[in-house]
Design brief:
CATH topology of one domain: Nucleoside Triphosphate Pyrophosphohydrolase
Pfam families: NUDIX
Largest sheet: 8 strands, mixed
Protein name: CoA pyrophosphatase
GO molecular function, one term: metal ion binding
Distance between the termini: 34 Å
Order of helices and strands: HEEEEHEEEEHEEEH
Shape: globular
Structural class: alpha+beta
InterPro entries: CoAse, NUDIX_hydrolase-like_dom_sf, NUDIX_hydrolase_dom
CATH class of one domain: Alpha Beta
Cofactor: Mn(2+); Mg(2+)
Length: 222
């Protein structure tokens, strides 16, 4: 990682949307009928301390949650806090923050928001999703606010996500072959699907990715 930025916050704050940002060329969502959603990609210090000092990527973490297994869409999957835009939201940024508060109890006053990334299609739920990068300047307690929607909330250490031993590919779901997509295996937690693709693309864009074996396959339980 010698060529990667050594300050995670600075890298995220300068994040651009180059042509190689995660592409979903095989995915189609009708812009006229698709639901608009947003997710908060919140990074901070892995040890939970204030994130105002320079923090190397290996010392950072990202806030994730596991969706309730009873939900209709993406049950039991791990993802970013987020959800659909509502009339009172200040665009995708406002929706991402509101949903994060509702799902994880985060104090938004401690969050530094950066420019949102381009919409990405999520065909299975007919969504156009806007990722909103953010930095956790002043961490606050988080928890699964509504057990009917969220099973757990946790910080995923970026150093563990970047570890080549924890990288996987998903090429089969429910016994059916799919186009291979990147995933991350952290103990019993498998981060795959939309979230895995976005995290992998983010790390590629920031220059954080380490060489890994895309031939190491895993099949999700769900």
């Amino acid at each position: 990682m010698s060529d990667a930025p050594d300050d995670a916050r600075a890298a995220l704050s300068a994040l651009a949307a180059p042509d190689h940002w995660p592409r979903f060329d095989r995915v189609r969502v009708d812009a006229a009928t698709g639901r608009r959603s947003a997710v908060l990609m919140l990074f901070g210090a892995a040890d939970g301390s204030d994130g105002e000092r320079p923090i190397a990527p290996d010392d950072a973490a990202v806030l994730l949650l596991r969706r309730a297994s009873s939900l209709r869409h993406h049950p039991g999957q791990i993802g970013f806090p987020g959800g659909g835009l509502e009339d009172g939201d200040d665009g995708p940024v406002g929706a991402a923050v509101r949903e994060a508060v509702e799902e994880t109890g985060i104090d938004p006053r401690g969050v530094e928001l950066f420019s949102p990334l381009p919409e990405l299609p999520l065909a299975v739920s007919n969504n156009l999703v806007t990722p909103v990068p953010a930095w956790w300047r002043h961490p606050s307690p988080v928890w699964a606010v509504d057990a009917a929607e969220t099973e757990e909330v946790f910080l995923a250490p970026v150093g563990e996500l970047l570890d080549p031993q924890n990288r996987r590919s998903v090429a089969r779901v429910r016994g059916m072959r799919i186009p291979a997509m990147p995933a991350f295996q952290l103990g019993e937690r498998l981060i795959w699907g939309f979230t895995g693709v976005v995290l992998s693309g983010l790390f590629d864009t920031l220059g954080w990715t380490r060489p890994w074996d895309a031939g190491r396959l895993v099949e999700p339980d769900a």
